[in-house]
UniProtKB/TrEMBL annotation:
Domain ERAP1-like C-terminal residues, every copy: 628-935
Spans annotated as Disordered: 44-70, 131-150
Domain Peptidase M1 membrane alanine aminopeptidase intervals: 323-551
Name of the encoding gene: LVRN
Organism: Anser cygnoides
UniProt lineage: Eukaryota, Metazoa, Chordata, Craniata, Vertebrata
Aminopeptidase N-like N-terminal domain location: 81-287
Cellular localization per UniProt: Membrane
Name the UniProt record assigns to this protein: Aminopeptidase
Binding site for Zn(2+): H395, H399, E418
Length: 975
C-alpha cells in the first residue's frame, strides 16, 4: 500500500511519542504537499472502522467460543488453491438509492495435500447461497471417460459452518477428500455493499455537475474474504478467471484485460453487461481488484504495456491525470531495466478514486489511488505536488515486483513488500524528476523521521516472529513507519555497503527464484550471500544474515561514540537516558555497523564495527585543529553519531570556515544528531548550539528547516517569547538568517516562478519566513503587509503559495479591523479552496487587537457563520497566540455550559492540551483545577490533574533549558 496521503491504514504506532518538531515537520510537509485536506475536523474521511461481526454471516462462532473473543487462526494446509473462477454481480444501477448488495459465485480448484473431511477457508460477512464440492478431477494420466472434461462426482456436503470470529467458513463433508487429488469447491454468496472503503465498497461523487456512484475494492491485508470465500493468505497463490456483471453504462476493470463483453437479463428481464477478464497469473488474494465506474481515461503504450489512467470525466478533460500518464511508462521502463525483469502483464490501469482509505494500492495491473495522490492540476505549478505524485506512483510500481511478483510468505516480513517499494519509490521518482536530489530527499523524508521514532523500548523490530502476527488488528498495525521507513533505510544501507551493482544483482536473483511465489527475509539474505560469495571486491565481516538480522530482528538502532584521542568507537542502543533503559532483545544491543567515513575531507575505505567497541588506529588524530573525522558520510548507515568534544570543536571550526567541506546531507545529519543527542540526555544543549554558529554560511533550506524546528518549534513560540531568550535569539538568529532570507525574498518579490523547480523551497520556505517574521525582521513584516495589501486591492492576485500562511497571518497581525474583515470576507468567498480557508482561519487568530479576537471567538459560537465543527479549531488557533491564550481560556470557561453541550469533552481535551504548555506553578494548576472541579467527573479529574503535573514538570525542565540557552546566547550573541 502507499505510505502517504492521509491513509487511514498508515498509522505511526509510536506517533504519540514523536517529538513536536517531527510532528511539525510532517505537518508542514503534508500541508505543503497535499493541500487537499478538509479544513475542519469532521470533514475528513472517517477512519475505516473494523468490519463489525455481521449478523448475516450465517452462523455464530464455534460453540464454546466466548462471544467477542477473536479466535483468528491460520488456515490448515490440507487444501491448497490452484485456480479461482469468480463471478461478482454488484446489484447497482445509476441513480438508484441504497442499500446495495452484491451476489457472487466462486469455484475454487484445490489440490488436496492431506486426507480431510472438511474444507476450511476464509469468509467474513458473507451470506451463503449454497455450497458444493466436486471431484476428484481427472489427472493427466487418468483414463479418459468421455468427450467432455469430467467435472468429477459430487462429494456430499454435511454442512457449512461460519466461524465469525475466526473469519473462516468450514465446509463439512460426508466423504473424504483424498491426498494428491484435485477438487472443486463451489460457493454461492451474497454480501453488502457499504460506503466503508474496505472490501468491495461503493463511493458517491460528483462529476460534471452530476452525482454518480462507483464500486471499487481494497483487499489488503484481509478484506478479500469479505468479497468472496477464499484462501486469504499471501502464500496461497492461485490463478483467477474473473467475470463481473454490471450496468451497461459502466465499465468494469480487474487485474487482467477484458477479453469479452456480453449481455444478460436478470429475473425481471432487465439488461446487464457481463465483462469477462483474461486468466490472471499466479497471485495472492489481497491484490485481486475490481472497479466498476463511469470514468474516462487517457492512455499510452510503453513496451507493449497498455497504460491507462482513469478518473472522473471532468478531471480527465482538464488534463489532471496527464502528468501521471507521462511518468508511469518511464518509471516502468526504468524499473524493468534496473531489475532486469520484465513486467509480466499486458496492461496497467491506474484509477483515481474520489474517496479512498489508503493513499494508494498496488493491485496487480489495477492500481488504485486517492485523487490527491494521482492528480496534478496544471494551474498548480508546484514541484512538490509533482514530486509527491512521482513518489507515490513509483512506490506502487515498485510493488509490481516487490509484493506482486514475489510476495512475503507471511505478514511478519511485510517490509519485504513495503520497505523495498519505499526504497525504489525514491529511485523512480528522482529518475522522472531529476531535479530532486535523491540523497537529500531520502534522508529528509525517510531516514530522519524514522530515527526520531525508532528509539523507545517497546518499538517493535522490523521483522517480527511469524507467530506474533495474528489477527486483522495486529496486521493493520504493521503498516507503519517502521515497516516503510525503517525498511527503506535498512535497504539503503544494504545497497550502500554492497554497492548498488551487487545489490541489484542479488535482487534480480531473488526475484527470479521466487517469481509467482513467496519468500521470507532469509531467502533475501541467501541470494545476497550468493552474489557476495561469487566475487571478491566486496568483503563482509560476517555472513549477510548475521549482519542484517542485527538490524531487522532487534528493535531500535545504535548510537556510535567516537573518541578521536584513543581512536575508539563504541556502540549502544540509542535510548532516552532520562528514562530507565531496559534491554529487550537477545543481541545484547550490538549491531554490525558499516561505517563510511572521512578524514580531513577525503573519503576513507568502509570499516565495520561488529562488537560493542573497537579500536581503529586510523581514527586517532593529530594535535592539528584541521585534523577531523566525520562518520556515516552521506547517510550510509541507520544510526546516530556522538562525537567527542575535541572532534566537535574541530567540526564547528570547519563549518565556520568551509561548510561545503562537509556534504550537505552530512551537515543535516550532524545537526539532527546533535539536537537528538541533546534531547536524549547524551550531550548538553550548549554543544548543539555551537554547531549553529556557522549558519550564516548555510544556503540549504532543508538544513535550515531542521535547525529552526529544533530552535523555534511552532508550539513553543509563546514560551520562547520571554524577555530573557527572545531578544537574544532574535539577534543571534537573524544575523545568520539574513543571507538565505534575502536570497529567497528576492525571488518572492521579483520572480517567484523561478522557484518552481526548487523542491525544498516549496515545502520549507514557509518555516524560514514564519521565523523571520516572528523574530520581527522588518523586511519580512514589510513584505507581508505589502503582499497582503496587494491582495486586498485586487482579489484576483494570489499571494505566493510558498509563504501564503505567513503573509496572511502577518497581514492581519500588522493591520486593524480592515485587514481582519478582508480575511473574513475572503474566508466566506465561494471561490476559496479548502486550503485557503484553513490559512484564513488561522490568519484571523493572528490579530493583535484583543477585541478582534473576542469577536472572532464569538463568531465561532454562531451556528450561521461557521459550520459547527470549526469552533474548536478557532479556539485552538487563538489559544496558541501570545495575546490569545488568556482570551481563549476565559472564553472557554465563560461559555463552558454551551460548548460542552455542543461539542462535548473532546473540545476541552484539545484546549487543555494547549493550556498545559503554560502551566508553570502550583498556583496555575490550582486555577485550572477549580475549573475541572465543576466540569469533570471524578476519574477524569484525576487524569487531568496528572497530565497537568506532568506538563508542569516538562515546563520546568524547559525553563531550565531556556536558561541555559539564554546564558549561551549571552556569551555568543556578538560572535
Ligand atoms: Zn506499499
Amino acid at each position: 500500500m502507499g505510505a502517504r496521503g492521509g491513509s487511514g491504514l498508515y498509522v505511526g504506532r509510536r506517533a504519540a511519542a514523536l517529538v513536536a518538531a517531527v510532528l511539525l515537520a510532517l505537518l508542514a510537509a503534508l500541508l505543503a504537499l497535499a493541500a487537499l485536506y478538509g479544513r475542519c475536523r469532521g470533514e475528513e474521511a472517517p477512519p475505516a472502522p473494523p468490519s463489525p461481526p455481521d449478523g448475516t454471516a450465517g452462523g455464530a462462532g464455534v460453540p464454546g467460543d466466548p462471544p467477542g473473543v477473536p479466535s483468528w487462526r491460520r488456515l490448515p494446509r490440507h487444501l491448497l488453491p490452484l485456480h479461482y473462477d469468480l463471478e461478482l454481480w454488484p446489484r447497482v444501477r445509476p441513480g438508484q438509492a441504497g442499500p446495495f448488495s452484491f451476489v457472487g459465485q466462486v469455484n475454487i480448484t484445490v489440490r488436496c495435500r492431506q486426507d480431510t473431511r472438511a474444507a476450511v477457508l476464509h469468509s467474513a460477512g458473507l451470506r451463503s447461497r449454497g455450497a458444493a464440492v466436486r471431484g476428484p478431477l481427472p489427472e493427466p494420466g487418468d483414463a479418459v471417460r468421455g468427450p467432455l472434461p469430467d467435472p468429477g462426482a459430487a462429494v456430499e456436503v454435511a454442512g457449512l459452518r461460519q466461524e465469525a470470529a475466526g473469519e473462516v467458513a468450514v465446509l463439512e463433508l460426508r466423504g473424504r477428500l483424498r491426498a494428491g487429488r484435485r477438487y472443486v469447491l463451489q460457493f454461492g454468496f451474497q454480501g453488502r455493499l457499504e460506503e466503508d472503503l474496505d472490501g468491495l465498497f461503493l463511493t458517491r461523487y460528483t462529476d460534471q455537475g452530476r452525482s454518480s456512484v462507483l464500486i471499487a475494492s481494497q483487499l489488503e491485508p484481509t478484506y478479500a474474504r469479505t468479497v468472496y470465500p477464499c484462501f486469504d493468505e499471501p502464500a496461497m497463490k492461485a490463478t483467477f478467471n474473473i467475470r463481473i456483471i454490471h450496468d451497461p453504462s459502466y465499465v468494469a476493470l480487474s487485474n487482467m484485460p477484458a477479453i469479452d463483453t456480453s449481455e444478460m437479463r436478470d429475473e425481471n428481464g432487465s439488461l446487464w453487461t457481463v465483462t469477462t477478464f483474461n486468466t490472471s497469473l499466479k497471485m495472492s488474494t489481497y491484490i485481486t481488484a475490481f472497479v466498476i465506474c463511469d470514468f474516462d481515461y487517457v492512455t499510452r503504450t510503453e513496451r507493449g504495456n497498455e497504460i491507462r489512467i482513469w478518473a472522473r470525466k471532468e478531471a480527465v478533460k482538464n488534463g489532471y491525470v496527464d502528468y501521471a500518464l507521462n511518468i508511469t511508462g518511464p518509471i516502468f521502463s526504468f524499473l524493468e531495466d534496473l531489475l532486469n525483469i520484465s513486467y509480466p502483464l499486458p496492461k496497467t490501469d491506474l484509477v483515481a478514486l474520489p474517496d479512498f482509505g489508503a493513499g494508494a494500492m498496488e493491485n496487480w495491473g489495477l492500481m488504485t489511488f486517492q485523487e490527491s495522490s494521482l492528480m496534478y492540476l496544471p494551474s498548480d505549478k508546484f514541484t512538490s505536488r509533482k514530486a509527491m505524485i512521482a513518489i507515490i506512483v513509483s512506490h506502487e510500481l515498485g510493488h509490481q515486483w516487490f509484493g506482486n511478483l514475489v510476495t512475503m510468505n507471511w505478514w511478519n516480513d511485510l517490509w519485504l513488500n513495503e520497505g523495498l517499494a519505499s526504497y525504489f519509490e525514491y529511485l523512480g521518482a528522482t529518475f522522472v524528476q531529476p531535479k530532486l536530489s535523491l540523497d537529500k530527499i531520502f534522508y529528509d523524508h525517510v531516514v530522519q523521521p524514522v530515527l526520531r521514532e525508532d528509539n523507545e523500548v517497546g518499538v517493535r523490530s522490523l521483522s517480527e516472529n511469524e507467530d506474533k502476527i495474528k489477527g486483522s488488528f495486529s496486521l493493520i498495525s504493521l503498516f507503519d513507519s517502521i515497516t516503510y521507513n525503517k525498511g527503506a533505510s535498512i535497504t539503503w544501507m544494504l545497497s550502500g555497503f554492497l554497492t548498488e551493482k551487487l545489490f541489484i544483482k542479488a535482487l534480480n536473483s531473488y526475484l527470479k527464484e521466487f517469481s509467482f511465489s513467496n519468500a521470507n527475509q532469509d531467502d533475501l539474505w541467501t541470494h545476497i550471500q550468493m552474489v557476495v560469495d561469487a566475487q571478491d571486491e566486496v568483503q563482509l565481516p560476517a555472513s549477510v544474515k548475521k549482519i542484517m538480522d542485527s538490524w531487522t530482528c532487534q528493535n531500535g538502532f545504535p548510537v556510535l561514540t567516537l573518541n578521536i584521542t584513543t581512536g575508539t568507537i563504541s556502540q549502544e542502543q540509542f535510548l532516552n537516558k532520562k528514562n530507565e533503559n531496559t534491554s529487550t532483545d537477545s543481541y545484547n544491543n550490538t549491531w554490525i555497523v558499516p561505517i563510511s567515513w572521512m578524514r580531513n575531507g577525503s573519503s576513507k575505505p568502509l570499516i565495520w564495527l561488529d562488537k560493542s567497541s573497537n579500536f581503529f588506529p586510523e581514527m586517532q588524530v593529530s594535535e592539528s585543529e584541521y585534523d577531523w573525522i566525520l562518520l556515516n558520510v552521506n547517510l550510509s548507515g541507520y544510526y546516530r553519531v556522538n562525537y567527542d568534544q575535541l572532534n566537535l570543536k574541530r567540526l564547528v571550526h570547519l563549518l565556520e570556515n568551509d561548510p561545503k567541506a562537509i556534504p550537505a546531507v552530512s551537515r543535516f545529519q550532524l545537526l539532527d544528531d546533535v539536537f537528538a543527542l541533546t534531547q536524549f540526555g547524551y550531550i548538553q544543549i550548549e554543544t548543539a548550539l555551537e554547531l549553529t554558529k556557522y549558519l550564516a554560511r548555510e544556503d540549504e533550506l532543508f538544513i535550515w528547516n531542521v535547525v529552526l524546528l529544533n530552535l523555534v518549534p511552532e508550539n513553543l513560540e509563546s514560551t520562547l517569547k520571554n524577555y530573557e531568550v527572545y531578544p537574544l535569539l532574535k539577534k543571534y538568529l537573524l544575523k545568520r538568517m539574513l543571507p538565505i532570507y534575502h536570497y529567497y525574498a528576492g525571488f518572492i518579490r521579483q520572480n517567484v516562478d523561478a522557484l518552481e523547480p526548487d523542491y525544498f523551497a516549496q515545502v520549507y520556505l514557509e518555516k524560514l519566513f514564519a521565523t523571520a517574521c516572528w523574530l520581527g525582521l522588518q523586511d519580512c513584516l514589510d513584505l507581508s503587509s505589502e503582499l497582503y495589501t496587494k491582495w486586498m486591492d485586487n482579489t484576483q492576485y494570489k499571494i505566493p503559495f510558498l509563504i501564503r500562511r505567513t503573509v496572511s497571518c502577518y497581514g492581519v497581525a500588522l493591520g486593524s479591523d480592515k485587514e481582519w474583515n478582508f480575511a473574513w470576507e475572503m474566508y466566506n468567498h465561494t471561490d476559496s479552496t479548502k486550503e485557503d480557508k484553513d490559512i484564513l482561519l488561522s490568519a484571523m487568530s493572528c490579530a493583535k487587537e484583543s477585541w478582534l479576537l473576542h469577536r472572532y471567538l464569538q463568531y465561532g459560537l454562531s451556528d450561521t457563520l461557521f459550520s459547527s465543527n470549526c469552533t474548536s479549531i478557532i479556539i485552538s488557533y487563538v489559544v496558541t497566540k501570545d495575546i490569545g491564550h488568556r482570551i481563549a481560556w476565559d472564553f472557554v470557561t465563560e461559555n463552558w455550559p454551551l460548548l460542552s453541550e455542543r461539542y462535548g469533552k473532546e473540545l476541552l481535551h484539545d484546549v487543555l492540551k494547549v493550556m498545559g504548555r503554560f502551566v508553570n506553578t502550583d498556583v496555575q494548576i490550582q486555577e485550572l483545577q477549580v475549573f475541572y472541579n465543576t466540569t469533570l467527573e471524578e476519574d477524569e479529574r484525576v487524569t487531568a490533574t496528572l497530565l497537568l503535573e506532568f506538563s508542569k514538570i516538562e515546563n520546568m525542565e524547559r525553563r531550565q533549558l531556556l536558561t541555559k540557552v539564554a546564558d549561551w546566547l549571552h556569551k555568543n550573541v556578538d560572535d
